[in-house]
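pls design
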């Protein structure tokens, strides 16, 4: 625990001092591009705008799956200005849950000592490049990691076995969208089902906005 405390303190100092937090383009609090992509895609759906034909951030187009668009709808509700700080706080909680899930997979019971050690380890991991980059861009990687680890921590005969990996797989773009070309078998079937349903739901939202039962639609 003492070693973890030293590591956590060093990580905190390095995170706060190596690059000022609000330095343009590199500071931890100066990013958020991926979050903005998720948010704008969600807002495009609710505003009856095509998510794949219109750019969502500068010249960048949305390349995630139809299923992901449904999952990202709550991002459209986040308040501007503070959205990236809210999402960063959520990501830190998810990182703590990832650490706790790893302890569980290794066979440890969740005790107060494990919780304390997990908190210190979470702080310690923030300065590592993959974690810091995920936090900087506001990516969803840690949530997907938690889903996969949670799935692996379930008992083999659990009815929930496969749900986590299935949900995580639903966020991966297909080969046609520049994403994962290697899905096979059951995983590919899960992906096709999720995104088939996702495409139907998104199309329904857009059609419902385009042809409402009464009134008119104001486009933004």
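designed seq:
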């Amino acid at each position: 625990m003492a070693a973890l405390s030293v590591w956590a303190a060093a990580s905190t100092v390095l995170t706060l001092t190596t690059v000022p937090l609000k330095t343009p383009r590199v500071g931890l609090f100066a990013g958020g591009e991926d979050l903005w992509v998720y948010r704008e895609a969600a807002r495009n759906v609710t505003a009856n705008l095509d998510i794949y034909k219109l750019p969502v951030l500068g010249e960048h187009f949305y390349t995630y799956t139809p299923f992901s668009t449904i999952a990202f709808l709550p991002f459209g509700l986040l308040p501007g200005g503070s959205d990236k700080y809210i999402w960063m706080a959520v990501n830190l909680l998810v990182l703590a849950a990832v650490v706790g899930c790893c302890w569980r997979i290794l066979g440890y019971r969740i005790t107060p000592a494990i919780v304390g050690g997990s908190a210190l380890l979470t702080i310690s991991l923030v300065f590592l490049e993959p974690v810091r980059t995920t936090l900087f861009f506001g990516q969803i990687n840690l949530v997907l990691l938690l889903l996969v680890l949670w799935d692996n921590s379930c008992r083999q005969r659990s009815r929930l076995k496969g749900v986590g990996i299935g949900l995580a797989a639903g966020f991966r773009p297909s080969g046609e969208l520049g994403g994962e070309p290697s899905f096979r078998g059951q995983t590919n079937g899960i992906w096709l089902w999720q995104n088939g349903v996702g495409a139907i739901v998104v199309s329904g939202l857009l059609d419902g906005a385009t042809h409402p039962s009464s009134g008119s639609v104001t486009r933004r």
